[in-house]
Amino acid sequence: MGVLAVIVVYAVATVLFVPGSVLTIGAGFAFGASFNDTAKGVALASLAVFVGAFLGSVGSFLLGRYLFRDFVVQLASRYAVFQAVDKALEGNGLKIMILLRLSPLIPYNALDYISGITSISFRTYCLGLLAILPGVVMFTFVGATASSLLTSHDEASNNQTARIFSLVFGITFAVIGVLMASYYSKIELDKILEAQREQSYSTPLNSQNRPHNDDEDDDQGIV
Q: What is the 3-state secondary structure of 166-179?
């Protein structure tokens, strides 16, 4: 029942634009406390959160594509990079979507809806959701770790110190890994979007600078 409850709550929260980080940490804390096992708590919490986030994101995508399209168009206009992103999705849909999920360029909940009005296919969008797993695991690990520390206060001092050290090291390593993935994905995404902008700017210029053909005037003068 606990897993099902987390899935339902997370799916609804995603559709309603509720930030998921606090919910994800809370899920890790709850499952870690229930099983008194950090690894098992992280595994079950990550599974429940991912399924809930997946269902909520798919629901937001479909709502944006078919029901709330006008609202989503206004939402997308707030992000200057949207036009370049939309063009880039036509040729590199899965890669761009993965990079968007790993980078903070567009907020998670907004991206769900905005993706619905882009050229990306439903299948590619769903595959791109796999990129949220690193963040899900990291936040559930933080929650489960906090639970483990609070419930192990009666252990021996040496064991408690070793546990705290290992858990802090694990959290630090996880955070650094996610931050590095976010940083380098943003750099790669910026390169792709910049190339897309340059291509968009050069296309009309090339058409304007196209050599004049006298034969075209001759053809237009023929009645």
A: HHHHHHHHHHHHHH
pLDDT per residue over 178-209, tens digit each? 677 667 666 776 776 676 666 666 655 444 44
Reference 31, options 19, 51, 46; nearest CA is: 46
- What is residue 116's three-state secondary structure? coil
- Six-digit token pair at 85? 């992103």
The token duo for 105 is 């360029």
Count of other CB atoms within 10 angstroms of residue 140: 30
Burial state string for 87-125 with b = 16 or more CB within 10 A and e = fewer than 16: bbbeeebbbbbbbbbbbebbebbbbbbbbbbbebeeebb
Burial class (CB in 10 A: 0-12, 13-18, 19+), 57: buried
The Cα–Cα gap between 50 and 13 comes to 13
User: CA-to-CA distance for 68 and 208, rounded, in angstroms?
Assistant: 38
Handedness of CA 22, 24, 30, 32 (dihedral sign): negative
Helices (H), 67-156: 69-76, 82-102, 108-115, 122-128, 133-151
Query: Considering only CA atoms, which of 94, 157, 80 is closest in space to residue 125?
Result: 94
Q: Which of 132, 79, 76, 78 is nearest to 101 (CA)?
A: 132
Q: What is the pTM of this model?
A: 0.75
